[in-house]
Design brief:
The complex is a heterodimer. Chain A has 13 helices and no strands. The longest helix of chain A is centred in the C-terminal third of the chain and has 34 residues. By secondary structure, chain A is mainly alpha-helical. By secondary structure, chain B is mostly helical. In chain B, the strands form two sheets. A two-stranded antiparallel sheet of chain B has the order 1-2. In chain B, a hairpin with a 5-residue loop joins strand 1 and strand 2. In chain B, helix 2 packs across helix 4 and helix 10 crosses helix 13. Classes of the chains: A mainly alpha, B mainly alpha.
Chain lengths: 345, 254
């Protein structure tokens, strides 16, 4: 207990006020703790205030002063002990070409499981359709895929596009941007949901990935079995080559989150596990969202045009090249000269 | 279920423990609804501002509107929390702040994750899952907070008590009797001295009736300890009597 509170406050108040002022300056970026001399001065003020608080602890006689010092020490602790956290400013290009692919590679196991699960789902979807299982409506999310055979759809699409081509008009005119924006919104929501559902021990993520796989497999089998492989590739590859990997990235993030929640193979506490993966999760989710913006543009402005407007080989070539580029980017971009990735910060 | 406390206690490497008061579900919900109202207001204003251009932009305008609405809904809270050190408009108004659960500065990834995980916190409706989890969490964390390692605390504006103004610059008639002052110092315990000091420091926090009652009781208590001559205490109010006692005791301990 401090017997002479008045003297104590009078003596210490200037240091507290100075610390308060310096913390305000740091917050407003008028001062920087990277200056060693300045950092030492602020640290000394902080330590003095901490010791003042320690002297008051255990005493219930100065609640107001204690609350003030706790606040001050809390703010000082946050600024001083996380001084290295915001030392590096966010650099978008560096984040895109280094941080994002490196985070993807650090958590690559999640991507492989996402991919494997989607493939298993796709195989099941294909088997269900090949066996003529009732209830295609339950598998297909779009009614036009249920009511028409692929050949009928292709014929209709090509007929419409041929007419539009000969009349020199664009049936998608005016609606492409709306369509594109709707696709982006929907796909980004699905991807974020796949990640967030990792908090259900990954079960929700597994279901989303598996169901997506079933739809994909069913549609692909339907078109291939009906002899429309070229149309399918031309329709799906331009946007699917980026859209499907982006959703797999969302699934990857969800599985990483689920694993952190379960805690397999690590002695770390739950809080430590989450702390370790959150930067990678945020990066992967952000990267996936960015890819989906591109996918939305391609799907609305490119994928919906068929022959005779746009030859299928052009679309297939574009989609394949895009897939290779994305794979290269994710697996090789941002590697150092010795071929290694930076460890997570 | 872990034990639940209303504060987040953090021990620093300097060996000091400080606590931050955790926000309750009601204030957090109110902050959420304020942010939601702000979203609708901002969106309506944006739509109003965009409407003259819609005719020219046509499809492009409608597409932009869809993306803007989505960006507002998902990104508005994130941007505010990033720019305002863990606060949104709703949180500012309700006196709340998102902080790192170790008392450190929020990282951008923490803000992103706690907001993206709203997708699961809202399930099945009206934040039922997130609300339930936070009720059972020792740190009142919803799933997003748990994954991001964040907590929502109440911001308390504090100032050091102005003890100096209570004690300084006033004439103390007790000084005329140093021998009685010495006896007073001897008889007043440190706890009694602190109590009297805080009664003076918090003078303006008390209403008039309570203040008179408290000062009357304290003055009566101190009057019984020692007897000053009548001419020294003549005309002294209870409050002034306590001021004199406090000044005498603390001056003596220098």
């Amino acid at each position: 207990m401090i017997a002479d509170l008045k003297t104590f406050i009078e003596r210490e108040r200037p240091h507290w006020k100075e610390l308060e002022r310096e913390l305000d300056r740091i917050r407003e970026r008028l001062a920087d703790l990277s200056d060693l001399k300045y950092a030492r001065h602020v640290l000394a003020l902080f330590q003095r205030t901490s010791s003042d608080l320690a002297r008051l602890q255990g005493s219930s006689a100065e609640p107001e002063l204690k609350a003030y010092l706790e606040n001050l020490v809390g703010s000082g602790y946050s600024e001083i002990h996380s001084a290295t956290r915001d030392r590096r400013n966010f650099r978008p290009w560096r984040w895109l070409v280094r941080t994002f692919p490196q985070a993807f590679r650090r958590q690559i196991w999640g991507f492989w499981i996402s991919l494997a699960l989607t493939i298993v789902g796709a195989l099941l979807g294909a088997i269900l359709i090949s066996k003529g299982v009732e209830g295609r409506e339950a598998i297909y999310p779009f009614p036009h895929l249920v009511n028409q055979t692929p050949s009928e759809r292709v014929a209709r699409e090509e007929r419409q596009q041929s007419r539009a081509h000969s009349e020199n008009r664009d049936d998608m005119e005016g609606s492409k941007t709306v369509f594109s924006a709707s696709l982006m919104r929907n796909n980004i929501s699905v991807t974020f949901r796949a990640m967030a559902l990792g908090m259900t021990w990954g079960i929700g993520t597994l279901i989303i990935l598996f169901y997506n796989g079933v739809i994909l497999g069913a549609v692909a089998f339907d078109y291939i079995a009906d002899g429309q492989t070229v149309f399918l590739l031309g329709w799906l590859l331009p946007h699917g080559s980026v859209e499907i990997p982006a959703i797999l990235l969302g699934g990857q993030a969800g599985l990483v989150l689920g694993r952190a929640l379960i805690g397999w193979g690590t002695p770390d506490s739950l809080r430590t596990r989450f702390r370790k993966v959150t930067p990678d999760l945020a990066t992967i989710a952000g990267g996936a969202a960015l890819i989906l913006v591109w996918a939305g543009i391609i799907e609305a402005f490119f994928s919906q045009y068929h022959e005779p407007i746009l030859p299928y080989w052009v679309k297939i070539l574009f989609g394949s090249a895009q897939l290779v580029a994305l794979a290269w980017f994710l697996f090789f971009s941002g590697k150092s000269k010795d071929g290694k990735d930076e460890s997570a910060s | 279920m872990s034990s639940r406390s209303a504060t987040l206690n953090i021990s620093t490497p300097e060996g000091v423990t400080f606590s931050l008061p955790l926000a309750g579900p009601v204030t957090r919900s109110l902050a959420y609804f304020i942010d939601l109202a702000l979203f609708f207001a901002l969106w309506n204003v944006t739509a109003l501002l965009l409407s003259p251009f819609m005719f020219f932009l046509q499809g492009l305008g409608a597409g932009m509107a869809i993306m803007l609405q989505f960006a507002y809904l998902e990104g508005m809270r994130m941007v505010m929390e990033l720019l305002w050190r863990g606060q949104t408009v709703g949180k500012k108004l309700m006196g709340l702040r998102v902080v790192d659960e170790q008392g450190l500065k929020l990282r951008p990834s923490q803000v992103v994750i706690r907001n993206l995980l709203r997708f699961v916190d809202v399930l099945p409706a009206f934040y039922a899952l997130g609300g339930m989890v936070s009720l059972f969490s020792a740190r009142a964390q919803r799933l997003g907070d748990l994954a991001a390692g964040t907590v929502v605390v109440r911001t308390v504006k504090t100032q050091p008590p102005d003890v100096a103004s209570v004690l300084a610059g006033k004439f103390n008639s007790f000084r005329e009797c140093p021998h009685i002052e010495a006896r007073l110092r001897q008889k007043v315990t440190p706890e009694e001295a602190q109590l009297a000091l805080h009664a003076l420091v918090r003078r303006d926090d008390l209403n008039e009736e309570s203040r008179h009652k408290l000062y009357e009781q304290l003055a009566a208590h101190f009057r019984e300890k020692v007897k000053f001559p009548e001419d020294v205490v003549f005309g002294l109010s209870d409050e002034q009597y306590i001021r004199n006692v406090v000044e005498t005791v603390f001056r003596g301990r220098k």
